[in-house]
């Protein structure tokens, strides 16, 4: 029913009917569009974005699979990029009053009310910052052809899966059922999850980061957790706004890390009780914020199965988890 309500045009309905579908998460079905799985409501806005979005050379795109650490990366990139305008240590910083998904909106979900029309984004303050879960090949040509920069965050697929399982069960609209861990795992390990398959998504950005390292920066959630100072400096360098020695000794890096820390963000009023642009309660973006939580959920057969799949699918790259 949810899908039916969301059908905005005959064209959309026709398109959906022509696409392969499988049982979904959060929505009844997921649809295969350009080799990735989508919630039905995202297909029309994605097409609109692909056709009409005009990138500017200094745009910054935060790309990820859901639950890879997007919220954290959006906050870090915004705080870093705009640090001369919004002082990270001051208590009127936008990140203290708005959720990162409001500040750095998604192309495919948050932009505009009419999914067939792209609003005028030319007046947004520059550099403009956007988020996306779209796979690399499906970004608009304008992004591919401009000098804008993309930062991708990837997370160990075990943790990404557990995080997404919790998240989707929290936001699933009634009367759709929540999924058991086994049901969700079954779909995930076949690559059937929003913006999946996991491996194709990761590989697309990974390859792009190897081919065009000045355009795509590939980060890992685990690396950020292990050494945020180092990774933040790398990010600033990539964004052509490296921290000066004076900034470093003056505590700017530390202020950004503190401002964007899980503990700090989770406790903010806006993240406890507010809602993001798509109506999702902000609190669901902050669960545990740890690496390795998956061991509390996976049984030995699940670990074996997913390890094997990931090893096989990612064999052509040097990524390991
Ligand atoms: P867990 O469910 O494992 O806790 P996304 O932002 O891509 O939706 O990913 C959400 C995951 O990132 C959740 O993982 C969430 O707790 C974690 N997260 C959110 N904000 C974070 C932060 N500031 N630092 C570290 N992890 C964070």
TrEMBL record:
The keyword Transferase applies. Keywords: Transferase. InterPro entries: P-loop_NTPase (IPR027417), Sulfotransferase_dom (IPR000863). Residues 58-317 form the Sulfotransferase domain. It comes from Senna tora. It is an enzyme of class 2 (transferase). Coiled coil: none annotated. This is Sulfotransferase. One of its GO terms (molecular function) is sulfotransferase activity. Belongs to the sulfotransferase 1 family. Its EC number is 2.8.2.-. The lineage of its organism: Eukaryota, Viridiplantae, Streptophyta, Embryophyta, Tracheophyta. It comes from the Eukaryota.
């Amino acid at each position: 029913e949810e899908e039916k309500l969301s059908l905005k045009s005959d064209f959309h309905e026709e398109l959906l009917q022509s696409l392969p579908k499988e049982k979904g998460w959060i929505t009844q079905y997921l649809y295969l569009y350009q080799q990735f799985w989508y919630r039905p409501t995202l297909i029309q806005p994605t097409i609109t974005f692909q056709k009409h979005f005009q990138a500017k050379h200094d745009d910054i795109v935060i790309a990820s699979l859901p639950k890879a650490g997007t919220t954290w990366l959006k906050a870090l990139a915004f705080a870093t990029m705009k640090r001369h305008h919004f002082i990270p240590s001051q208590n009127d910083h936008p990140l203290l009053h708005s959720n990162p998904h409001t500040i750095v909106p998604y192309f495919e979900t948050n932009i505009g009310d009419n999914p067939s029309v792209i609003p005028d984004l030319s007046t947004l303050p520059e550099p403009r910052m956007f988020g996306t879960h779209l796979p690399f090949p499906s970004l608009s040509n304008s992004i591919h052809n401009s000098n804008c920069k993309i930062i991708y965050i990837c997370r160990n697929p075990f943790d990404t899966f557990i995080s997404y399982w919790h998240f989707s069960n929290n936001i699933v609209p009634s009367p759709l059922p929540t999924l058991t861990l086994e049901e969700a795992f079954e779909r995930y390990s076949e690559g059937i999850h929003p913006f999946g398959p996991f491996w194709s998504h990761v590989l697309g950005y990974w390859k792009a980061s190897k081919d065009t390292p000045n355009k795509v920066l590939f980060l890992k959630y685990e690396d950020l957790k292990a050494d945020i100072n180092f990774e933040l400096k790398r990010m600033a360098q990539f964004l052509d706004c490296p921290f000066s020695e004076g900034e470093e000794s003056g505590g700017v890096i530390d202020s950004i890390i503190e401002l964007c820390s899980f503990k700090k963000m989770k406790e903010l009023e806006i993240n406890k009780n507010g809602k993001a642009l798509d109506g999702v309660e902000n609190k669901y973006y902050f669960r545990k914020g740890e690496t390795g939580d998956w061991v509390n959920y996976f049984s030995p057969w699940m670990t074996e199965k997913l390890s094997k799949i990931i090893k096989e699918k990612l064999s052509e790259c040097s990524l390991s988890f």
